[in-house]
Specification:
Layout: E1 6-11, H1 20-28, E2 37-41, H2 44-52, E3 57-60
Antiparallel strand pairs: 1-2, 1-3
């Protein structure tokens, strides 16, 4: 079985003063606290979510 590609994302800037849609994207990616790193499947939907909030998250090298 082929291994699915993963993407590591870090939540490094607070979403306090951002629009509600940005806060929902942060929550949808699974972040609960600042500087948290999550690993998600690397697909178009996750990439689109990251692209919506590039000022709040960063992609880490695997």
């Amino acid at each position: 079985m082929a291994e699915t590609k993963k993407i590591r994302i870090q939540y490094y800037r607070s979403a306090i003063a951002t629009p509600v849609k940005h806060k929902l994207v942060v929550k949808g990616l699974g972040f609960t606290r600042l500087n948290q790193i999550v690993e998600r499947v690397d697909n178009e939907s996750v990439r689109g979510m990251v692209k919506a909030i590039p000022h709040l998250v960063r992609i880490l090298e695997n």
